[in-house]
Structures are given as structure tokens and as C-alpha cells.
User: Fold this.
Amino acid sequence: MGDASEITLGDGGQVLVPSGQSVILQDIIWNSAGPDGPVARFRFVAPAISRVKGTVDADQVTKDLLHLCETVVLEKLAQKGPLPPNVLVSMADRAVNFGETIPEATQYFESYRIEGNLCISELF
Assistant:
């Protein structure tokens, strides 16, 4: 992967996750700077996680993020080519521009190390 970040927009398709909610891939930011080298960021919109009107709690989100890593992320990585050492999978209750702060937005993040066909959760 090169030194510059590259953004791939999501196709608008819905992905059903274990909590029962449907999420949409907002975008993928390839080769974003991370503490251990390049990171691919997979950003999803998931309205059901809203603090105000949401129906999905943090425990369910953890399972959803892993599911997204094991399905969507691994598939996209296989199509892209060389794997980054880590991926970051996130969900927000609304579309948020990368680097923008929206205090009322609900967001969850999980970092994973990819080993073969496994997503290994990394503490960060």
C-alpha cells in the first residue's frame, strides 16, 4: 500500500448484523496512519445505536463489529491486495465526515489484527 490515504465510498447496500439491525458501509479509508503503521478504516452507519432512540446496546455492538470484520472487512481486504497490519471498524448512528466531531453522534470503534481469516480484537 502507498503512503497516501485513499477513500472508497460505500455502495449504499445494507448489511444485516447479529443484533438484527441493518447497517450501511459509509466508506473505507485505506492506508490511514495508525500507531503501528497503516490502518484500513471501515466506517458504517447504524441508526439503531443512537443514545436517544436506539435499540441496540454496547454488548450487541461488539458482536456486530466482529461480524462486520469477519464478513465485509475480510472480503474487501481480499479484493484490495496487501493487508494492512490492523483494521479499525466503526459504527455511528449517522454519517460523520472523517475527522469531524459531532458531540451528539453515538459512535463505537474496535481495532482488529487480521490473521488469516480471523479478526483478533486489539485493545487501543
